[in-house]
Structure formats: structure tokens, C-alpha cells
Amino acid sequence: MSLFRLRRRARACLTAAACAALLGACADFRPPEYHRPELPAKASWARQGSITVSPAETIVPNWWEGFKDPYLDALIQQALAGNYDIKILATRIKVAGAQIAEARAGALPTADLGAGVSLQKSTGQPATHQYNLATQVNWDIDIWGKVEKGVQAQTAEFRATEADWRAGYLTLVANVSTTYFQILQFDEQIDQQASTLSRNGQILATYQAMVQHGLLPKIRAMQQQAEINRLTKDLIELRRARDVSENALATLVGVPAGNFHVPKGHLQAKVQLPVVPAGLPSELLARRPDVVASEYRLLEAYNVVGQARLAQLPTIGLTGQGGTASFALTDLLKSFTFGLMPSINLPMLDPGVRARVKTTEAQVKVAENEYGRTVITAFEEVETALVNIDAHKQQHVELQQQVEQLRVVSAQIEAQVKEGVASQLEVFETERSLLAAQLALLANHQQILADTVTLYKVLGGGWPGTEVRNEAKIAVQ
Q: 349 with 315: CB under 8 angstroms?
């Protein structure tokens, strides 16, 4: 090689090194250190006093057992085993776990092995065969920890998918519970409606007899028949709503709709109302699955930034080659050729690598805001659940008093009818008012149960607190 060419090559290397040094002075290669974003502080719930529990009490994992209904317990276990939404979330955990091994494989060497034979034939000459065997090993040495940052990012995604499963678990249990409560409410409403319809049928028969004897205008019998038509229509609607809810519950537990039936029951007799420990707002951030999942995805975004920054640093690669060739197959393994070629790459000179850093840093801001939105929404949902359960319990007291008073009024009107002081029309109006109050009390009881389920759900449903951080190593089954 001429002296001129050597000088040219040296000058090019110096120029590349100078550019790398200049870029290195402007670039930040350090992975960012993760810190949970600052959010508006919240020290207590506005209606904490509406739930009277010991401060030491915590939410148990199987919190639904507090309703004291064995059939509900069995339904939830069936749903956890058969629901397809929860199965999908579980398989996503397996996918994310497998992707950890895929990310970790980036630090391992790769090997290619090949074998072949070539045939050459010239006119008037015998055919010749050449056999060859070759292998090549490539290894990009992860001296800066770029691959490990990718593994940490994927591990954070794995933990986020686990939290997604826990959130789906809570949603499933809540949906099964509230749908089951609604079915029992319909059963009780249907019984009350059927009883009222039967009572009004007796009144119609009395009215028709009185009309025949000229003791009552025909229009009164027609009004009573219209009332029976309304009650019958409402009863049909209640039965339809029960069937639809039963179909929804069948899907939740993983059974084809129409092949699943809930035994008839009375909501107020079967389901007890448990007391829910509310906990503190700070515990919500570590316990509620959707908040934990959002924070893990924020940690993942930080790790992706670190990986992108480290990807700018020089990389060292080793390429090893070996092989043999022979015109005779029997002589193929008699001689070998080996070679080793180290290489250094400067990715910081690639505009795409530098642009990738800016993209990942912008994505961190998105993840931070998504985490903040999840936390603020969680606070709102807990406060709303506390407001609802407090107001509905107050309404329950008023409705109970209303029902008791209307029962007394109904009994007195019945007595006055026997004495000829009151009319049958007053009895009918009193009974209709009593039925409406009883149905309102039943609906209120179902609403308190649903509020309780919602409160369990928005408080994290018994899942233990999770510290979001990078893990040294994770073993995935």
C-alpha cells in the first residue's frame, strides 16, 4: 500500500473520531433514572367517615365472600375458570414473558452452519464435484448494557400485563356480582308483581259482580281491567329483563347463553351487606391494578429511552468464520480454514439512531400523562363510590320508614272498608303506593350492593401493594 493511501486512511479515521467526539460531547448517553411523577396530593377521602371500620382492617382477596352467599362464591369461581376475557389476559402474560427471553437473546452470539455441493461440466471433460462446509459466528458484545435495558423494558411490560390481568379479574368479579344481584332483584320484583296482579284480579271480579247488580258503574270495572293490563305488561317486561340478565351472566361464566339458569331467590333474604374498609389514597396507587399497570408502562418508557441512548455508543462485534472444501467427499474434513474479524461501529453517526432518542423521550411524556390521568380517574371513582353508597344508605332509611307507614295505612284502610267508612278504590290506591315503595326499597337495596361491589373494585379489590421498580432478573414460567 502506498504512503499516500495510508495517509488518506489515517486522515479518514481521525475525522470519524473527531466527529464522534463532537457528537459525544452534545449527546447524553446515560439512561434516565426513574421517579414516580409528582401528582396533586390527596391525604384522605371526603366521606371516609361514612364507612366505620378499624384503621387496621384491610380488604381481603376473596372480598365477595362477605356477601355470605355460597351460590355467588361458586359463580365467581366458575367465571374465573371459564371466562374468555380473563383467559385472553392470562395468555397475554405468557406472550410478554416469552418476549423477555427474546429481548435477552440480543446479547447472545448467533451461529450459521451451511453445507453444499457444486457440479461443473465442460464439453469433452468429465464432471467435477466440489463439496464445502462452512460456519459463521457473529457476536455483538453488549458492553454498555443496551440489551439489558431492553430486557428491563420488556420485564416492565410483563409486570404491566400481570396488572392488566388483575384489573380484568376485578372487573369480572364485579360484573358477575352485580348481574347476579340484579337477577335476584328481578325474582323478587316478579313475585311482588305477580302477587299484586292476583290481588287486582280479585278486585276486578268483585267490581264485575257489583256492576251486574247495579252497585257500581261499569267504568270502574273498565278502569280496573286497564290497571290489570298495565300490571301484566310490567310483569312480562320483568321476566324479559331477567332472561336477558341471565344470558349476560352465562357469558360471564363461560357458558353458552340459554344453557345456564340461576335458581330463583330473593335478594334481600339471600345477600348480606358487608362493611368495606376504604384505606388511604396513598395505598390506592400501589394496590389498584390499573394504576400499577400504568406506572409499569411508564417505567417501560424510561427503559426504552435508556436503551435508545445506549444504542448511540460504539459497538464491538466479533465475526468468526470457518470452513472446508474438497473435490472428494472423503477428503472434506481433512483441512479447515479459520478466520476471526473484530469490528467497531459508531451508531452515533446514524441520524436515525439519534432521532430514535428524541422519539422515546417524547413517548415518556405521553406515558407520564397517561399515568396521571389513571391516578386522577381512580381518585374520582373512589370518591364517587363513597358518595353513592353514603347517599343510598340514607335513602334506605327513608324508604324503610315509608314502607312501614304505608303498611299501617293499608291495614287501617282495610279495616275502614269492612266498616263501610272507606271505599275499595282507596284500598287499591293504598296498595299501589305500598307496592311502589316496596319496589323502590328493593331497588335501593340492590343499588347499595352494587355500590359496595364498585367500591371494592375501585379500591383495588384486595390485591397487595406493588412497588414499581426495575428488577435484577426475572424467571418466567
A: no
Task: Return phi, psi of residue 59, to 5°.
Answer: -75, 130
316-341 pLDDT, tens digit each = 888 878 767 666 666 666 666 777 78
d(CA 289, CA 285): 9
* DSSP classification of residue 145: S
Is pTM beyond 0.85? Reply is no
Taking only the tens place, the pLDDT of each residue in 121-133 is 667 667 776 767 7
Q: Which of 467, 464, 457 is nearest to 170 (CA)?
A: 457
pLDDT greater than 90 at residue 140: no
Listed in sequence order, the residues at least 6 apart from 301 whose beta carbon sits closer than 8 Å to its beta carbon are 360, 363, 364, 366, 367
Residue 235 pLDDT exceeds 90: yes
Phi, psi torsion values for 344, nearest 5 degrees: -125, 130
Measured CA to CA in angstroms, residue 219 lies from 77, 140, 208, 223, 426 at distances of: 56, 96, 10, 6, 16
| H or E element, residue 338 | strand 337-345
DSSP annotation of 322 reads E
Could you give the count of Cα atoms lying within 13 Å of 472 in the half-sphere of its Cβ? 0
What is the average pLDDT across 49-68?
Answer: 66
Mean pLDDT of the 466-474 span: 79
Residue 1 has pLDDT above 60, yes or no: no
Gap between the Cα atoms of 107 and 109, Å rounded: 7
Cell triple for 112 = 450459521
Nearest to 308 by CA among 344, 358, 243, 266: 358
Rounded to 5°, the CA angle 17-19-22 comes to: 110
Q: CA 372: distance to chain centroid?
A: 17
CA distance 420 to 318: 109
Read off the C-alpha cell for 372.
Answer: 396521571
Q: How far apart are CA 63 and CA 47, in angstroms?
A: 21
